[in-house]
Design brief:
This protein is mainly β. It contains 4 helices and 41 strands. A hairpin with a 5-residue loop joins strand 18 and strand 19.
């Protein structure tokens, strides 16, 4: 048996090596034997968490990547260097089929991919914070502190643990953490972004449901005040200017509730209001000027200090369920934790249409019809990217989609493209988006597809579930979480340049909106990335661009 079968000088065909690994590698095979047989890997990375039980200490070994021209092979070892799992990623031979977890009984698996295999890009981050739960997302930030969400990634019905924690923005050191167990929690920051108010329904320390609203200082985790509502089930917490709003149901079917408006700094009650029948609390955050309640066919804006109505807007009868309340909804606004946009004038579903409403004045500034078979992303104050289902009984059950760009200034559809366009961002005359999960660039003027990442997927294949972040624009490069990789693309041509070393990403059930908002954030100074193996990573933006320029300078000469 020759050595270094996946080494640079090997003449053994990859298919033969693949068959040999199936025969020779077992669970527990030592890493020394793997290295002797296959040679030195192209990349060594920290593995995914190998402890399947949430709440237990995380276990990490190494994952080795052997990168070939048409495939790659990854081998994962325990901390003691024993083989625990491996995966061959090879081109798909037919129509794409969404992969499902084979379970713990199958450690040796195949990934059939429709995108080219990626070479690993060696680039060192400034720091890497290690959390104690698999999935990490950025929620908010100020100059000194990053506020993160941790989650075990359990599927619906099997979620055990989540957390809210803060890390130092310059060093990556954890400052404090609050655990929420398997209960729901909500976190809203104040206007100065110096404090966060957290509602949690469950206290894992005593293993019981206890509704708590706590006001926490970001710099050190000090709890400045605490309120304990009587009923944690169905409770909703929102914020307006210097105000915390608690909507607490008084019965199980939520036909009656009490609205408590608290001073955000002190936690003291300002006013209360009893609400009967169906209603919606439409506040988005601490920048909202009023408390916004839709009830009995009207939207009311209440002064947060006095509780008096400032303005109201006629809504009419309910037309359809608000899709933003669907846990799988990933449309609407993309919230950027590093530079939140001013959405004083924002889109909200009111009656039979989506209304662009000025929340200060209550004036309507635009509209778009509400349709059961449509969802949309807000690209900016002018443009909506609308996804339309072409068949099926409901939007998410369709097998064919088209997408259109709607200009609210001109009240017209600018263009339509085939497929589900999502995760879009406008820069100059281009819209960077994904078409059925494949990265692409489209001309904003007429919808011409300028480029699309090389792939072998059929036109009807929907790979949207493979996208785990929004786009990050880094000079001449695009960054995007795709499958398990943080992919680097040439912005001009769409050529896939590679994947960042030791950055393991992905998507997870019911956390799609967290991923869209907080899995990847890019500014002129930094790149912040959440992962699926507990790490949260910071790169210096200029240093990363310089590294990419060194590697790919020939492309731009």
């Amino acid at each position: 048996m020759p050595d270094q079968l996946l080494g640079g000088d090997s003449e053994v065909p990859t298919d033969v090596v693949r068959n040999l690994t199936e025969i020779l590698f077992k669970k527990g095979t030592p890493s020394t034997y793997v290295k002797t047989l296959l040679g030195e890997p192209q990349a060594r990375e920290i593995s995914r968490n190998q402890e399947p039980r949430s709440g237990k200490p995380m276990i990490f070994g190494e994952t080795w990547r052997y990168e070939q021209h048409d495939s790659y092979y990854s081998v994962t070892f325990s901390p003691s260097g024993k083989l625990t799992a491996s995966e061959w990623a090879i081109p798909a031979a037919g129509p794409f089929e969404r992969s499902y977890s084979p379970g713990d009984d199958y450690e040796f698996t195949y990934l059939f991919t429709v995108t080219p295999p990626l070479k690993t890009i060696e680039a060192e981050p400034n720091w890497r914070n290690r959390g104690n739960l698999n999935h990490t997302f950025l929620l908010e930030a100020n100059e000194d502190v990053l506020l993160l969400k941790g989650d075990d990634g359990g599927f619906s019905g099997m979620h055990d643990n989540s957390s809210l924690y803060a890390i130092d923005r310059s060093t990556g050191k954890k400052l404090w953490q609050e655990d929420a167990g398997f209960g729901a929690y909500t976190a809203v920051v104040d206007q100065d972004r110096k404090h966060v108010t957290m509602f949690s329904a469950y206290n894992p320390a005593i293993k019981d449901y206890v509704a708590r609203v706590r006001h926490i200082r970001l710099s050190d985790g000090q709890v400045l005040w605490e309120v304990k509502p009587k009923n944690e089930f169905g409770l909703k917490m929102k914020a307006a200017a210097n105000t915390i709003i608690i909507d607490e149901p008084l019965n199980l079917n939520e036909t009656k509730s009490v609205l408590s408006v608290l001073d955000q700094e002190t936690g003291k009650l300002r006013w209360k209001k009893t609400l009967s029948g169906e209603h919606r609390l439409l506040n988005q955050g601490s920048d909202d000027p009023y408390v916004l309640i839709e009830q009995n066919g009207r939207l009311y804006a209440y002064d947060h200090d006095t509780g008096k109505a400032v303005w109201n807007y006629k809504v009419g009868n309910k037309f359809m369920d608000d899709p933003t309340q669907d846990p799988y909804f990933t449309g609407g606004y993309r919230y950027d934790p590093l530079s939140p946009a001013d959405i004083t004038t924002r889109w909200m579903m009111l009656g039979k249409e989506w209304v662009l409403l000025n929340t200060k004045t209550g004036e309507r500034e635009g509209g778009y019809p509400a349709r059961e078979m449509e969802r949309f992303e807000v690209l900016n104050e002018r443009y909506l990217l609308v996804q339309r289902a072409l068949n099926g009984q409901y939007f998410s059950g369709a097998t064919a989609y088209e997408s259109l760009l709607y200009d609210s200034n001109e009240d017209k559809v600018v263009w339509t493209v085939e497929g589900k366009a999502a995760r879009a961002v406008i820069e100059g005359e281009r819209v960077y988006l994904t078409l059925n999960g494949i990265p692409a660039a489209v001309a904003i003027e007429d919808g011409t597809v300028i480029w699309k990442m090389v792939n072998t997927a059929a036109a009807s294949d929907d790979l949207s579930h493979l996208v785990g972040s929004s786009y990050g624009i880094l000079g001449r490069y695009l960054l995007l979480s795709l499958e398990s990789d943080l992919v680097v693309l040439d912005k001009e041509s769409g050529k896939s340049l590679g994947r960042l070393h030791n950055v393991i990403t992905g998507n997870v059930d019911l956390l799609e909106q967290d991923a869209r908002n907080g899995a990847l954030s890019v500014t002129d100074h930094e790149v912040l990335i959440g992962t699926v193996n507990g790490a949260f990573i910071r790169y210096d933006a200029e240093e990363l661009m310089e590294r990419l320029d060194v590697l790919y300078a020939p492309l731009y000469q």
